[in-house]
Each structure stands twice: as structure tokens, then as C-alpha cells.
């Protein structure tokens, strides 16, 4: 299902490693199935575009127009591909 | 034809349900439709109780509407969401399936909201969409073609701004329509899954004699193997078929859950592409700027601690003025009654029982109102979710997550709303731990006891108010620290589970509606006043009776009390509480306050007023200070005052909380455990403080 056209152009990182202010594309969720399900329902589906807003102990992301706070431990289980660099 | 399509008739009241994501303005819309007073909050899952309202169609027919808890999906993750799913599927007790659904969506966040809409439409129940918060969407440069959206989804769509009551009449008009179409599913699964679900719904339809298209939603739930109330009722052939189909799909390498969510989102995305126009984004979102400061690692904490300090400072200083008025008012009332009535049992009952008892508790209403005002304000502005976010770091140290902070903060006002707010916590063990420790947060019912004991401990005139506020703060800190300790202990032992991960939506900041905050204050303090007027009034009269009877001829007031029913009970437990430095009169207070903590103050008022021989009753504090042991040493030494405060910080003394915990955990085991561990800890801590203090020569 994941065709070649969707191959990542940039190296994959986890959400904690991604830079604050950058646009990211979700590539993989590595948490428990139930948590993955909830993440997807909240908009963190595979290939969805998200925006990392803040990283202060926990993370804040803008996804589908809503702002969502996530634990850092969860951020490590969300694998993303940077789409654009952080704004200066 | 099923009942869903029944046109409104004189005989049948149509039942609507309001469904939507948390923070989409559902409760505000509910208020706008029904005018019913109800709490409007801002953090996820504020609507935890079943809220039913009545309103009239444009043709004057009464209709019923239920405000369901906010949900992100019909695959529930918390008890709250399970309620929503069960009501929609008609699985909740004796509730029948709703006749019609009003789906509320946040226009500024349409794609995410449409995910739930696709699940609702699968149910096949006549549905209409309230496209709420269009003003917020417009300010973000988003415009939505409501007519096109209606075409896409095949249901009526009404744009509205619930908080300004714009579009509410149009929505009522849509709701009043005699006939509404049954929605038809327009999103498609991958072919292999589509085939499997169709096969399953055909089998279900065969069994139940219903139309297969209506059973699609249920077939989907059965196929993914989700636990639901009806699992045991599935017939063996259906269960076997579902298992077989699931295995087949797994063999093809398909993850059912992932595939379904992806298909729904793909459809939502396609719909959005056709109906949403995004203009040039204006200036930066004000929520961004605020969040940059309010969730900042240093500034965020500074502001958070500042707000908490301000709240407690206001409670302990500002509130003293109105408290003096209330106190003075009841004092004047008691004196007036004393002058107007001839001396006798009835006069004593009214002044010493009713007025002293109820007045002693109502005097704390100003403090409680201030606490509720702050909590309401924090919720209404959207700050509460940020506070939970900030607290996540501390909460995760004891094995809970930030969401547990909201119930705990509410518990400072009262453990009952706090315990009910735990329904948004997904993991049952984390929820139970939060319920178990919530009553350790000093609630408003403890304030009367703390204030009385601080006043007894420190002379009124010579000690600055700040020092008293400091002691009060220390009591709150001790309670909170012990709550965190027990949360950690429970998570390490009986409730062992991994530290939960936080996934929480942060709603946009908004200007608080003072009306909504005021309504909430009134709604919540009503409970307190009602308790003062019922339980505490009743207990005050009962205690007065127990302290005044049986009458002993010729006995002075002191020996009369000692030989009364209450005195005998106090004497009976004295051996148990003497090691804590408490005498039998305090024992009467402790027994009385097992029903509700604040009763301690009214009990003490009754106990000491019964003894007062002249007509001018001394203030309770003075009476307590004059109290002596038989050997002439004072009862209320500073050490005893501190020990009593420690007891009230820790002991579980609230019948209402016990009842709520029983209801929320569905067993007597947990409330009994809670009483045992809290009161046991209180006893041991008091023993340690009193005996330790004595050894140090205090």
C-alpha cells in the first residue's frame, strides 16, 4: 500500500527530535495499538501533515487545525519526516 | 418503516442527541437551544453527566434533547466516550436509540471533526450538522460552503455561532422538519474490507430482519473485534463469521483499525477540499502568542504558581469581609430570637441548634464562591488544559498524567465534582488512583474546621493575617503532598501500570463569559447551601437533641452534657482518641463530622452553647480556649490544635463522597478501602504528631 511515490525524501526522526516550528509528515506510529488508534483519530494518521509548536517537557503540535499536547514518551513513538525547515 | 423516520406527531416526543468532539461548543449550543442552565467548560470532557433539556419545535411541539459527552470517536477510550457510543447505539440501560442526531462541528477544525461525523452517519439515524464557530473559522481565513457541505454529506447543514445565538433559530427549523432523510454512507473502505463488512452486515440483517445498510456501523464494530456491551449477545454464527473474516484480512496484511481510520480521513479530506476555501492567513493566531508564554518552561510555571497563589490569597483574605457580615448577621438573628422568645427548649433548639449549626457552616460560603469563581474562570478561558499540560511533568513522576490534575484541582472545591471529572481519564487504573486520592485535596468543607482551629491556635488581634494564611497554605500543601505520595504508592503496588501517555487537545483561548462563570458558581454553591439547609440542619438538630437529652433534674449544664446521649458517645470513644490529645467533647465533634467535615464546627457550637449558662454566648473560639481537662490543664493547647488540623487534612469524613465513589467504581470495595486508608493514616499521623510533640515538650 505504501507506494514508492511516498518514499521519504528526508531522513526520518521521531517527534521529539524534530525542530520546533517545523512542518512534519507522520510516517509511522510505534505505540500500543489502542494509543495508535486514538492518535489517528486525533489526526496523527500516517501521511498527515502536522506542525510542531512547542517542546517544553511535553510537546504541542498543531494537527488538522487543532492544538494537541503529547507526552514526550509518546513523541518518541511518532516517527515523522520533516517537510519544511523551522521558520527563522 | 422504522421508528426513526416517524414524523413528529402529537403523541410522540422526539428525542434528539447532541454529539461532537470536545470543545466544539456543544454545551453552549445546548444552552442556546433549551435555555437550561448548565455548566459550560473548556477542557476536554467537561460534560460528564447526562444532561437533558426540553425545547419546542417551530410548530410548538415539545422535543427532548440530550447533551452527550464530547467524543473523538465511537471507539471509546474513556468512560465518557463509552456513554456517547452506548447512547447512540441504544445500548445504555433502558434508553432507546435517539430519533435524531444533531452533530456539532467546529468549523475552524472541520477535517478532524468530520472523522466523527462519518461514524455518526454510518448509524443511519436522521442527522443534521451544526457548523459551529464560523466566526472563529473566518478569523483564521477559513470559509466553508455550507450548501456544498450539505450536498456532500446528504444531510441538512446549518452554520451557527452558538455563543451569540446566531443560527440557532435556523437549526431549530431544521430540527422541526417533519421528514429528514436517512443518511447514506458515502465513504468507502478498501475493496477487501468493504466486501467483508458487507458480508457481515448481510448476515446480521438476515438474523434480525432489518435492512443491511442500517447495520453497517455495527458490523464494522464487530469486525474489528471491539469490546462492546452486546458482545455476549452475538449469535455463534455471526461471531464465527466475524472471526473468519478478520483472520482473512490479517492474512492479507491489512490492519483493520488503521485501514478504517485512513479511509474515513481520506473521505474527510476530499470533502474539505471541495467545500473549504482557505484565504490568506492573517496575522499570527493570538492563541500561539499566549501559548508561547503560558506553556513556556519558566514563564509558564511562574504564571501558573502566581495564579494558584492569587486564588488562595483571595480565598483567605478577600473572603474575610463578607464572612464577617454573614457571621454578624447570624449572631444578630440569634440574639433577636433570644429576646423575642421565652426561655425554654424550643428557644434553645432554634438558637443553639439551628442558627448556630447552619450559620457556622454558611459563613464559609464566600470562600467557596471565590474558589468556584477561579475554577470557572480557568475553565472558561481555556487555561485549565494548559495547567494540566504544565502539571504533566509533576504528575508523571507519581505515575499519573496531566489530565488527573483537573479532577484534583476541582477537589479543592469539593471531591464530588472532582471524582466525576475523572471520567475523562482513559486508563481505569489511573482513574481509580485519582479517585482514591482526590478526597485528600483539602475541600471547601475543611475550610470551616481549618479556620476555627487556626483562630483557636493564634490570638486574633496580635498575629498578622499573613501568618494565618501561611498555616492555611501549609495545610493545603500537606494534603496535596500526601495525595501525591499515595498516588505514587498505589501506582507502585496495587494499581501497577505504566505511566500513561498524555494526548490532550488544547482548546483555543477565549474571552471568558462572566455570565457562564456566574451560572457555574451559583450551580455549584447551590449544592453547598442545599447541604447546609438539609443534611447539616438535620444533623445540627439531632446533635442538639443528643447533647440536651436525657434531661437530668438539678444537674448543671456541664454534667448535663456529660450525661447526655452525645456525652456518653464521646466518653465511649475517649480511650481511643485520648492518645491523640482529644477529650470526649472533641470526640462528639469527630463522630458528628463522619457524615460531613464542616459539621465539626456546628457540633462544637452546639456542644459549647449547650453549656453556656448566661444568655450572652461567647464566641466559639473563646469557649474552646476556656475548656479544661479535669486536672485543670487546657484542652486546646497549640499541639492539640495542630493535631486536630492534621486529622482533618487526612481523614475521610464525607458520606456524599463515599456514595459517589461507590457509584463511580460500582463496588463497595473502593470506598471502604478509601475510608480505611485515609482515616487510618490520619490516626497514625495524629498519634505521631501529638506523642512526638509531647516528647519534645510542646
What does this structure look like?
The complex is a heterodimer of chains A (88) and B (698). Chain A is mostly beta strands and 88 residues long. Helices cover 15% and strands 41% of the residues of chain A. Chain A has a domain at 32-83: SH3 type barrels, CATH 2.30.30.90. Chain A contains two helices and six strands; from the N terminus they run E-E-H-E-E-E-H-E. Chain A has a six-stranded antiparallel beta sheet with strand order 1-6-2-3-4-5. The longest helix of chain A has 9 residues, at 33-41. Among the domains of chain B are: 14-176, P-loop containing nucleotide triphosphate hydrolases (Rossmann fold, 3-Layer(aba) Sandwich), CATH 3.40.50.300; 191-253, no CATH class. Chain B is elongated. The termini of chain B are far apart. With 698 residues, chain B is of the alpha/beta class. Mean pLDDT of chain B is 82; it is low at 1-9, 39-48 and 610-617. At the A-B interface, helix 1, strand 3, strand 4 and strand 5 of A face helix 3, helix 10, helix 11, helix 16 and strand 9 of B. Strand 5 (66-71) of chain A pairs antiparallel with strand 9 of chain B.
User: Class of the domain at 32-83 in chain A, according to the CATH hierarchy?
Assistant: Mainly Beta
Kindly state the percentage of residues in helix of chain B: 55-70%
Low-confidence stretches of chain A: 1-5
CATH architecture of the domain at 32-83 in chain A: Roll
CATH topology of the domain at 32-83 in chain A: SH3 type barrels
Q: What is the structure about, briefly put?
A:
The complex is a heterodimer of chains A (88) and B (698). By secondary structure, chain A is mainly β.
Features:
heterodimer; A: 88 residues; 15% helix; 41% strand; globular; B: 698 residues; alpha/beta; Rossmann fold; six-stranded mixed sheet; 9 strands
Please describe the topology of this protein.
The complex is a heterodimer of chains A (88) and B (698).
Chain A: E1 13-14, E2 23-29, H1 33-41, E3 49-56, E4 58-63, E5 66-71, H2 72-75, E6 78-84
Chain B: E1 15-20, H1 26-34, E2 51-56, E3 62-67, H2 79-88, E4 100-106, H3 110-122, E5 127-132, H4 134-139, E6 142-144, H5 146-153, E7 157-159, H6 168-176, H7 191-208, H8 216-223, H9 236-251, H10 256-275, E8 276-278, H11 286-294, H12 299-318, H13 320-340, H14 345-362, H15 365-381, H16 383-397, H17 405-413, H18 415-420, H19 428-437, H20 446-457, H21 465-492, E9 503-506, H22 514-533, H23 535-548, H24 557-563, H25 565-577, H26 584-592, H27 599-611, H28 620-625, H29 638-650, H30 655-665, H31 669-695
Helix pairs in contact in B: 3-10, 5-10, 7-8, 7-9, 12-15, 12-21, 13-14, 14-23, 14-27, 15-17, 15-22, 19-21, 20-21, 20-29, 21-29, 22-23, 23-27, 25-26, 26-27, 29-31, 30-31
